[in-house]
Structures are given as structure tokens and as C-alpha cells.
Design goal:
This protein is of the alpha/beta class. The chain contains six helices and twelve strands. It folds into two domains: about 230 residues, Metallo-dependent phosphatases (Purple Acid Phosphatase, chain A, domain 2, 4-Layer Sandwich), CATH 3.60.21.10; about 35 residues. Helices cover about 20% and strands about 25% of the residues.
């Protein structure tokens, strides 16, 4: 039985006919901005599958949380949010781990799940969660359990960074299709009323290839077309933005006099392009 205090409802007005589901952002403000530039339309709403904060950079993670709040983009709570203690990121390699007070306040309000409601869904039950149970990765063995637990025909999730569509057919058999983050065309599935689906939106920050590790220059996300009853997985290339940022950082560094390695000061990082 779901805890009502841990479940929020996203009620979409009649004017909204598309829902964009952001894969794990992990502080990737460039990936978020690129998706918004590509997908923002009057008929489109957005939601995040959680893990909005990252691994090391509290400043970027705080900025991303602020952008989501400013844009009115709701989110569920991911394991990275659950692991924040006293405003500090748990998985830290280097960089400032402290989240801003604003980011901490926003994260504290995130629910475990979001139920999507819209007249255009016409009875289609849609849920957004981060993971299966207590932070387990979705796979062909537990996709049915996730659907049963959520009581939904369509569940969007993240956590794995591996974008995929899982299908539970009328015979009770589960199949899956992986989506490569390097793919240039979307992968789609038309929703069959006799079938249930789990859609893993992957990650804005670090979607995983089938072979070769994380594709850090790519972002993945999912789209639900409420009218066409179709889900799709999409990828985009962040390389031009990353290269532009790198050039700006290099120019700022070259313009700053060398301090002899004393560790004093250094240029402030320019605002992300």
C-alpha cells in the first residue's frame, strides 16, 4: 500500500499532450538546457526521475535543482537525494560537496513517486519512480514486480543509466529493448492496452552504452505522447556545448597570471554556456 505522504500527483491540463521524462540529471545543467531547448513547447510538460544531484560538484547540483524549481519541473527522490546528509553529497571524489540551502529545501520535499493524471490519458495509469524497491535496478526479472507495486500500466524510472523499454505482454512474458545513447533516431513503442511497460529514461549526465561505458557527451530522456499513445527514447549530443565551455575555461586560465603553484586563488569558473 502506497504512503499517501510519499506520493504526489501531477495533474496535466487539457492543453498538455506530451510529457518529457528526464533521465538521471546528476547536476548536468548543459544536458538539462539542451533538452529544454529541443523539447519545450506549449503542449509539453517535464518531470525528472530523480538523482538530480551528482557525485562531486555541489555548486552544479545546486544550480540544476534551482533550474528545475524555477521551471516548475517536478521530480521524484532518487538514491543520491536520499544519501545527502547535512547538505553534503555523499559520493564525492573532489570538488565542493556542499549543496545550497535552496537546493536542500527543494530536495527535502521530493516524493518517492509521482502519479500522472490527464484527461488525455483516458484511464491509462502512469507512474514515475526512481528505482525498484529500495534502490534496485530495473531488469527483465523485476519489471513485473515494479508494475504490480505501482499499479500502473506504464512506469517511468531511472537509476541504471541504461535507457530501455521493458514490455510485459498479455501472456505475462517480459522482454526488453536497450537504447544506445549514441543513436541518432528515437526508439518508439506504441502502447497496447493489453500490455504494460516500464521505460527507463537513462541519464542526462552519463548514459551507459551497451559496450564501452558512459557516454558523457550524450544525454538520454523519454517522451510520452498522450494523444498518439506512444512512448519514445531520445538521445542528444552535448559535444558542441562541452567544447565551448572547455575553450572558455582555457581562455580564463590563460588570462590569469600563474601563482607559482601556491594554490592561491585562480579564476572563477565562467557561467555555463
Amino acid at each position: 500500500m502506497h504512503d499517501a505522504l510519499d506520493t504526489h500527483t501531477l495533474s496535466l491540463p487539457a492543453s498538455i499532450t506530451r510529457l518529457v521524462v528526464l533521465g538521471d540529471p546528476h547536476g548536468d545543467v548543459i544536458g538539462l538546457d539542451e533538452v529544454l531547448r529541443r523539447e519545450r513547447r506549449a503542449d509539453t510538460a517535464f518531470v525528472s526521475v530523480g538523482d538530480n544531484v551528482g557525485y562531486a560538484d555541489g555548486r552544479l547540483s545546486s544550480e540544476l535543482c534551482g533550474l528545475l524549481e524555477d521551471q516548475g519541473i517536478p521530480s521524484v527522490r532518487g538514491n543520491h537525494e536520499a544519501w545527502v546528509r547535512d547538505g553534503m553529497l555523499k559520493l564525492v571524489s573532489d570538488g565542493p560537496p556542499q549543496l545550497s540551502e535552496r537546493a536542500q529545501a527543494w530536495l527535502a520535499k521530493l516524493p518517492r513517486r509521482i502519479k500522472v493524471q490527464a484527461a488525455a490519458l483516458d484511464g491509462l495509469r502512469v507512474s514515475v519512480v526512481h528505482a525498484v524497491g529500495e534502490w534496485s535496478y530495473v531488469n527483465v526479472r523485476n519489471a513485473r514486480n515494479l508494475l504490480d507495486t505501482e499499479g500502473s500500466q506504464l512506469v517511468f524510472c531511472g537509476h541504471t543509466h541504461r535507457a530501455a523499454i521493458y514490455t510485459l505482454d498479455a501472456r505475462g512474458e517480459v522482454s526488453s529493448r536497450r537504447f544506445e545513447p549514441t543513436r541518432k533516431t528515437p526508439m518508439t513503442a506504441d502502447l497496447d492496452p493489453r500490455t504494460r511497460y516500464v521505460v527507463d529514461a537513462g541519464s542526462l549526465a552519463r548514459p551507459t552504452r551497451t559496450r564501452g561505458g558512459a557516454a558523457l557527451e550524450r544525454s538520454t530522456y523519454a517522451v510520452l505522447d498522450l494523444v498518439a499513445r506512444r512512448v519514445s527514447l531520445h538521445a542528444l549530443d552535448k559535444t558542441p556545448r562541452i567544447q565551448a565551455l572547455f575553450r572558455r575555461l582555457m581562455q580564463a586560465d590563460l588570462a590569469e597570471p600563474y601563482d607559482g603553484g601556491s594554490g592561491g586563488g585562480g579564476p572563477a569558473a565562467p557561467h555555463l554556456p
